[in-house]
Each structure stands twice: as C-alpha cells, then as structure tokens.
Write a structure and sequence with these properties.
The structure is a single chain. The protein is α+β, with helices and mostly antiparallel strands and 148 residues long. The chain has two domains: 73 residues, Carboxypeptidase-like, regulatory domain (Immunoglobulin-like, Sandwich); 44 residues, no CATH class. The chain has three helices and nine strands, in the order ααβββββββββα. The strands form three sheets. The chain has a four-stranded antiparallel beta sheet, with no helix packed on it. Strands 4-1-7 form a three-stranded mixed beta sheet, with no helix packed on it. It has a two-stranded antiparallel ribbon with strand order 8-9. Strand 5 and strand 6 form a beta hairpin. It is elongated, with a radius of gyration of 27 Å.
Amino acid sequence: MKYRYVLSLLLLLGFSLPQHLLHAQTSPVNGTVQSNSGTPLSGVSVRVLGGKATLTSNLGNFTLAAKIGDTLSFTYIGYEATQVVLTSLSAPLNVQLQQVSGELGEVVVTALGISKEKNRWAILSRKLNLSNSIPPRRPILSMTFLVR
C-alpha cells in the first residue's frame, strides 16, 4: 500500500512539472538592421534557421522568439546575406548589412507575364522601356498599349 502511494505521488509530480523547465527557454530577441551607411532597412527577412521568421519594420526594428545558440539569418535584396549566432538574449542585436557591389540581373517581361532572362526567349519577348512608352498622366487601359 505504501509503495502504491509513493508511486502515485511521483507520477503526479512528474506530470505537473512546468513544460518550460523541460525544454530550452526561448525569449524575444529585439534588434535593428541597418545598411553599412547606418540607414535603417525596412522589410529585411529575419529568420531563425529551422524556425520562425519575421520582417523588419519601417525603422529597421524586429522582434523574434529565439534561444541562446540559435542562428539568425538576415536577407535583403541588394545586400549580402548575414548570419549571426545568439550569445545573449538581454542586449538588443544590431546588424549591419553590406551592399552587393554588382547590379541585379536584367528582367524581361514576356507575353504571358513570366519573367525570363534576357535573350532567352528573343522571339516571344520584348524589352520594355517604360519611361518612353507611357504618356504622363494617362491610365493604361490594356497591356497591348505597352507592347508595340
């Protein structure tokens, strides 16, 4: 009878332990993403590798749940991707992204609206120069006006 009572008590205590004690503790990580010139970048993708992701605000701020040892990946068009390993959860994380020195590839719009590489579909596609083909302050009524 005494053995049964002790076993019941141990089972009750085992199931009533808080779950956060059994798993690694995550807490919110705050920070700012800036360009190498110090300008805040909005819309930067901030991702915990193998986990959740978020975007930076207009002021370059982000908040994401992570734990110590997680790797955060920062990606943005025109900037080199950066990865940072979290060593502290108390201090805000400030990240500077470096601009890519090359140009982005040229995009050509095809008749079906599928973007292709330049000169890949020379017969079906046409390079558009939108600054010369659209008259100012006139609405575009159809796509045939753009492709002449």
